[in-house]
Write a structure and sequence with these properties.
Blueprint: E1 9-12, E2 17-20, E3 25-31, H1 45-53, H2 64-76, E4 82-89, E5 93-100, H3 106-125, E6 137-140, H4 144-160, H5 174-178
Antiparallel strand pairs: 1-2, 3-5, 3-6, 4-5
Helix pairs in contact: 2-3
């Protein structure tokens, strides 16, 4: 197995705890660098979701070309480094539900998504600098009911934000691919 690394288990890169383990199904949320107003700390995943859903920042992922760069990055290593279960690319943040594959650390996976997409997006919109927030949120799925509810939340996010009437209409989500 190429690039295989031991998983890190529970850890923190600052103030948010993360869990990294093979076979773990996680809901991952990462946002653009300007998606949360300066000086505001996202102390919990629920607090962060509310801030992200408020639509702060330039929302460069509203541009279909930029959203496609992110979606392509997510799909690129599906089945190799992780198994995508559901995803949704919102105007200023991204939701992913994925199962980690043995030997591939969660932080490395997320970094690869951010790196690949940021170079393309920055070139497309003719900007420089950091595109993504450093931190991300991850929540492991406790059971099938939690997973089911989280998939519904992720795929329903564009409807909740009044971007579309039905989840299957949002082009940059697993709901669209399944419709």
């Amino acid at each position: 197995m190429r690039d295989s690394k031991p998983h890190l288990g529970w850890r923190s890169r600052g103030y948010l705890p993360h869990c990294d383990a093979a076979g773990l199904v996680q809901h991952i949320v990462f946002g653009l660098a300007d998606s949360v107003p300066k000086g505001v700390r996202t102390s919990s995943p629920v607090h962060a979701d509310r801030l992200l859903d408020a639509g702060h920042g330039a929302c460069v992922l509203r541009d279909a070309v930029c959203a496609e760069f992110v979606q392509s990055a997510l799909l690129h290593s599906d089945g190799d480094r992780y198994r995508l279960i559901a995803w949704c690319i919102m105007p200023n943040h991204v939701h992913v539900i994925a199962e980690q594959i043995e030997g591939h650390r969660l932080g490395d996976i997320i970094q690869s998504w951010k790196s690949a997409s940021s170079h393309q997006i920055n070139a497309h919109v003719q900007r420089e600098g950091r595109l993504w927030r450093r931190e991300y949120f991850d929540r492991f799925m406790r059971d099938e009911a939690h997973l089911h509810d989280t998939i519904a939340y992720v795929e329903g996010n564009p409807v909740e934000a009044k971007l579309v009437a039905n989840a299957g209409e949002w082009q940059f989500s697993s709901a669209y691919w399944l419709s």
